[in-house]
Specification:
Length: 855
């Protein structure tokens, strides 16, 4: 079935857009592009005009700021001249006070200082120098040396700092550029500024271009009408030196102008007359969009200012050009494609309808095939199908699911409680809690075994596999899955277990006789046998021992599978356990010519079944001895790992192949499983060790470098020393703690022991039944979820037993809700986690009034 084509491909789509039927869309595109071009040109023109206006405004502001600042400085100098005119001869202190009151640094940043240069005639020079030296300046002299018709020595310059001291006594009239400005000021009687000079103050740091501004001061009472009269009456000059860089930064301040400013002390741009520039020397040459030349006529000099726009200024007005063009082009293309789509809508709608029809037919065909495959798969697997719709409140079960339980489809009402009605009644509360826990978790897939009630009365074990469909908040909406009848599988497993158990038990009796008899003979009880016969007897004896170990392993596996293996958990000293394990394997090590070395063990206590831990260590040691070459060494060591202790057994064997390492702890697993393997064994020892350690709250593992030996280890929590001992606590109420989680069990043990109670602790229903049958207890704590059943079963058994009926029970559970309806009184309910105070208060309350101890 071929899918109908829609003209969505690149080649076909382009052909449709350029076809004659799409001419209207092309006209719309052309028209909109023309409109966009006109609008863009208009916007561009307005932006350029605004930019020119803004640039001119900024240029005028800069020029006016320079003019105003120099005018302010002229007023400062005129004030100094007025001070001298009014006071006649002023002192250095008076000049210092005047300049200090001006607050030049705060009000006029950039000015180098304010000084007074005294006009000294040649006949007055000696007396002048003597007077200044007499004032405390012993090194004072007028410099530079030489005979001149007029000297102008700088006698006052404030602030009188390091830079300005360099100008003290300097005759500015001797330098041509300064002379020109000073003569112009003296003859005209006006302020005058120099062209570009280098100041005497450039004693350190970067040398800046400088200028000086002069205001003449005349002797009082003399005529000042002509130039000659003014020169004759000249008393000196009030002046200010300026470093142009400092001056311009003071004028412009911290304003970040988007302009480049260059100032030339001439009527045109001449590099040798450059006073100041903001252009960076290393900046690349660029052509500014906006530029302007202005001239300032200042106190007898002409300054040329060049102002160039910077990129940040230009971007203020033209940064949106790309955006405008992009939006315009995008809008035009959008209108083009919209018009084009409308022009071709009929053809595309028809093609889409054909395609939808084809998809509907294909989906129907695929659905029919899927239903057929599902039906065949369910028939082939002989499984049933079920679907629980939580929103609709319905349960669907396939005919095969009903057939497993002996019902016809629809014989029972299909509501949400149907699964509880077909389940074994004593399992309902436990499975309801397990289902609630699964629904509250985030899992999507689950697998569980249930016991269903057949219509005929027999119990049908089934395996449920399901998928949970959830909404966006994680709430379950629907649960679907399959149901498998496990009756035949359970029957086969029971037959296998019974067969293994029967064969193992039946073999032990004759094997005991055979092994015992061979032991007596090989030990010489009946006299010495000939050498050839002795060898055969030794072989037979060793193999009878191997067969005994195999039978014991099989029985242990059968007990663990049936949940019948019991543990006598007590507090043991670890050093004694390790010494016993090494001692019991010493003969086996000597037989293989291997040394067993026990490193000094850590002195801690552990809560274990001593015999079962010995069984684990014997498995580790026997394997290590078998795989260690002659004259080799097996080392046993212990080490602390936080709150746990690790026991390690290291051999010097060939190591474990990489491919086998993930199967080490599996049943009947052997790295060399061939008939010709050198090391004999059943492959059950490590699997049993792993199961035993986990039942006692520990872990096992191994570390291996192939070719360099293997270290097998087991790890157990350290038992915190408690005052007193349950076996020796006389006169204390005795309690039984039933808790499968090791850490929680140890915590309850500690809390109750510190509360003054004698405590026994077990981890399973089976062990609890044994303790209650043989011990005498005033109360017990109970976890409802245990490895071999529910704690509710134990409560029901206790209440049916006349000797235990009044035994107080403190239930400690993590369940969110307790179903107490079916349970008797004298039960205290505590929700995990609990505090020591809660536990001790509950126990004390349960023991009041104290019933006779349960026996």
């Amino acid at each position: 079935m071929d899918e109908p084509a829609i003209d969505n491909g690149s080649t076909t789509g382009l052909r449709q857009h350029v076809a004659w039927r799409n001419g209207v869309a092309w006209l719309v595109l052309l028209f909109t592009l023309l409109v966009q071009l006109v609008v863009f040109q208009h916007l561009r023109s307005n932006e350029t005009r605004a930019a020119n206006q803004q640039f001119e405004l900024l240029s005028d502001k800069v020029t006016e700021a320079i003019r105003k600042r120099l005018h302010d400085h002229e007023q400062i100098l005129l004030g100094g001249a007025g001070l001298i005119d009014a006071g006649g001869q002023i002192s250095r202190e008076q000049w210092h006070t005047y300049v200090q009151r001006l607050q030049l640094k705060e009000r006029y940043p950039g000015i180098q200082g304010v000084g007074f240069s005294l006009a000294v005639r040649p006949d007055e020079r000696a007396a002048h120098v003597a007077a200044i030296r007499a004032a405390g300046f012993q090194d004072y002299t007028i410099h530079p040396d030489g005979e001149r018709p007029l000297y102008t020595s700088i006698i006052y310059l404030e602030p009188f700092d390091r830079r300005n001291r360099a100008a003290f006594g300097y005759d500015m009239y001797a330098e041509p550029a300064r002379h020109q400005a000073m003569r112009r000021a003296a003859t005209l009687g006006k302020a005058s500024i120099t062209r570009k000079v280098t100041l005497m103050q450039e004693t350190h740091g970067k040398v800046q271009a400088g200028v000086l501004l002069y205001v003449p001061v005349y002797r009082p009472g003399l005529p000042l009408d002509t130039s000659e009269q003014r020169l004759a009456a000249l008393r000196g000059f009030v002046y200010s030196p300026y470093r142009l860089g400092d001056l311009m930064h003071g004028i412009l301040g911290d304003v970040d102008l988007p302009l480049d400013l260059s100032i030339y002390a001439s009527d045109r741009e001449q590099p040798e007359h450059l006073l100041f520039t903001t252009r960076q020397a290393e900046a690349p040459d660029r052509s500014p969009t906006y530029t302007q030349l202005q001239q300032l006529h200042l106190y007898g000099q002409t300054w040329t200012l060049r102002l160039d726009s910077l990129p940040e200024f230009e971007e203020r007005f033209h940064s949106n050009d790309t955006l405008v063009v992009s939006l315009g082009l995008g809008l035009s293309l959008l209108l083009f494609f919209l018009t084009s789509s409308l022009a071709m809508r009929h053809q595309r709608a028809q093609a889409l309808a054909e395609q939808m029809t084809w998809h509907i037919r294909r989906n129907k065909h695929a659905l029919r095939l899927s239903e057929e495959r599902l039906s065949l798969a369910l028939k082939g697997s002989n499984d049933g199908l079920w679907d629980l719709d939580l929103e609709a409140g319905t349960l669907y079960a396939s005919p095969r699911a009903w057939e497993m339980l002996g019902y016809r489809p629809g014989e029972l009402p299909s509501d949400l409680k149907l699964w509880e009605r077909v389940m074994v009644s004593e399992d309902v509360s436990r499975e309801r809690a397990r289902l609630a826990q699964t629904m509250l978790s985030n899992v999507e897939h689950f697998t569980t075994e249930l016991r269903m009630q057949h219509k005929g009365g027999q119990v049908v074990p089934v395996l449920l596999r399901g998928y949970i469909q959830r909404d966006s908040q994680g709430q379950a909406q629907r649960i679907s899955g399959t149901i498998m009848d496990l009756t035949e599988r359970k029957r086969i497993e029971q037959m296998k277990n019974e067969f293994v158990s029967t064969v193992s038990h039946e073999l032990r009796t004759p094997l005991t006789s055979i092994s015992g008899a061979l032991g007596l003979i090989t030990g010489g009880a009946l006299g010495e046998a000939p050498e050839p016969m002795q060898q055969m007897l030794d072989i037979a004896y060793r193999n009878s021992q191997r067969l005994g170990h195999l039978i014991n392993d099989l029985l242990d596996m059968e007990k663990m599978a049936a949940g019948k293996m019991t543990f006598d958990l007590r507090e043991h000293a670890l050093p004694r356990l390790l010494e016993d394990a090494v001692a019991s394997n010493q003969a086996f090590a000597e037989q293989h010519r291997v040394r067993c070395v026990l490193e000094p063990p850590v002195n801690v206590n552990v809560w274990v079944d001593g015999l079962r831990l010995q069984q684990v260590l014997n498995n580790f040691l026997s394997n290590a001895i078998k795989f260690t070459p002659e004259n080799g060494e097996v080392r046993v060591r212990s080490s602390l790992r936080g709150t746990q202790v690790r026991i390690s057994v290291s051999d010097q064997g060939p190591g474990i192949p990489q491919a086998f390492r993930e199967h080490v702890f599996e049943k009947f697993a052997q790295a060399d499983a061939s008939d010709s393997r050198k090391i004999a064994g059943t492959g059950l020892g490590l699997a049993i060790s792993k199961e035993l350690m986990e039942r006692m709250g520990g872990t096992v593992g191994f570390d291996c470098v192939e070719g360099a030996g293997t270290t097998f280890w087991c790890q157990l929590p350290i038992q915190t020393p408690l005052f007193g001992d349950s076996a020796t606590s006389e006169g204390q109420p005795r309690l039984l703690v039933v808790e499968d989680e090791p850490d929680t069990g140890r915590l309850l043990h500690l809390m109750l022991r510190e509360g003054g109670y004698a405590v026994d602790r077990v981890q399973s229903l089976h062990a609890a039944r044994e303790k209650l049958a043989t011990g005498s207890y005033q109360a017990m704590t109970l976890d409802l979820h245990l490895p071999d059943g529910s704690g509710r079963q134990l409560i029901e058994e206790i209440r049916r037993n006349p000797a235990l009926r009044n035994l107080p029970v403190i239930v400690i559970s993590a369940a969110n809700q307790f179903d107490q309806s079916a349970l008797a009184e004298q039960i205290v309910w505590l929700h995990k986690p609990i505090t020591s105070a809660q536990l001790l208060t509950s126990v004390h309350s349960a023991l009041q009034p104290t019933s006779s101890p349960a026996k």
